Amino acid sequence: MADLSMLPIAINHMTAPGLTARQLIDVAAQLDCVGVELRNDLGRALFEEETASSIGRAAAAGGQRILALAEVKAFNENPDDKQEAVEALVLTAAACGAEGVVLIPHVADDVMERSAQRDALQGALQVLQPILEEYGKIGFIEPLGFWNSSLRFKEDAVAVLDAMGRPDCFALIHDTFHHFLVGADRICPELTAIVHISGVADPAPSASEMTDAHRVLIDANDRLGNIAQLRALYGGGFEGPASFEAFAPEIQKMSDPANALSRSIAFITSQLIDTSAGAA
Question: Which of 124, 140, 234, 275 could connect to 79 by a Cys-Cys bridge, CB 3.0–4.6 Å?
Answer without folding.
Answer: 124
